[in-house]
Design brief:
disordered N terminus, 180 residues, 8 helices, globular, alpha/beta, seven-stranded mixed β-sheet, 9 strands
């Protein structure tokens, strides 16, 4: 993954050092789900509880998200609400784009005000646009400690991404099976 417009590289970020505690341990969580949701309020409640637990359990959390549908918007809103109401000093909401998209390029200031960081996945940005999203998703999973899904049927890109995460042996939570 690379950052746009001169922002610090990931290598530099992972080398941050807390002189009192030792090396900063970053726990990375990525989110994937279907484009359209029927039960947004229920999903947001589950997400907020999970995010709160993650912030309690880990020194620092990177939350990786796309911007490709209802679930992604639910996650982004939930992360920001929990950061505002619970704790905002140990996490980052990171938008990971498959390539420099027109909506981002046309509204860069708005995007940068909303997300803590914005990244372009280098591998997907160099691929054919039809495969870029799946490549970006795989790269996000590869760097994640936990992958949270909202998958309720066995078709589509979110389901394919779930299968990839299982194949990689990642820790998974499917929010549709999660109860608070």
């Amino acid at each position: 993954m690379q950052r746009l417009f001169g922002a610090p590289t990931l290598l530099f970020r992972f080398m941050e050092y807390d002189y009192e505690m030792g090396a900063l341990e970053i726990y990375t969580v990525s989110f994937f789900g279907h484009r359209y949701l029927d039960n947004i309020l229920e999903i947001e409640a589950k997400l907020e509880e999970l995010i709160r637990q993650l912030l309690e359990q880990h020194e620092y959390c990177d939350f990786l998200i796309g911007r490709d549908g209802d679930f992604d918007q639910c996650v982004s809103s939930s992360v920001l609400r929990v950061k505002k109401s619970y704790r905002d000093d140990n996490s980052s909401l990171i938008l990971v784009l498959p390539y420099p998209r027109k909506d981002y390029l046309d509204n860069q200031d708005s995007f940068e005000a909303y997300y803590d960081e914005i990244e372009i996945c280098e591998k997907s940005s160099l691929s054919h646009f039809k495969s870029a999203f799946q490549i970006r998703n795989q790269e996000m999973i590869n760097r994640s400690d936990l992958v949270i899904f909202n998958v309720d049927h066995e078709s589509g890109g979110a389901y394919q991404t779930l299968k990839y995460a299982k194949h990689q042996g990642k820790e998974l939570i499917n929010i549709t099976d999660y109860s608070i």
